[in-house]
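Much of what follows relies on a compact textual record of a protein's fold. With that in mind, consider the following protein and its fold in token form.
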Amino acid sequence: MAVVTRTHALNVIRRAYGPDFAESVRDKLPDRLDLENPRDTKVLYDLGLTPDRLISALGAEY
């Protein structure tokens, strides 16, 4: 089970997309995200936070 806290997710989002975007999605994220749970991954996808986009935004290749 790959579970991350909202705080951890926001730290990654802040590094990838900046503080303004992180603040704009803060209230849309649950307290804990289970990255293996389809409901939680749908929340991320609906916000445009796909693994490919996150990795690219962080300056790496997937």
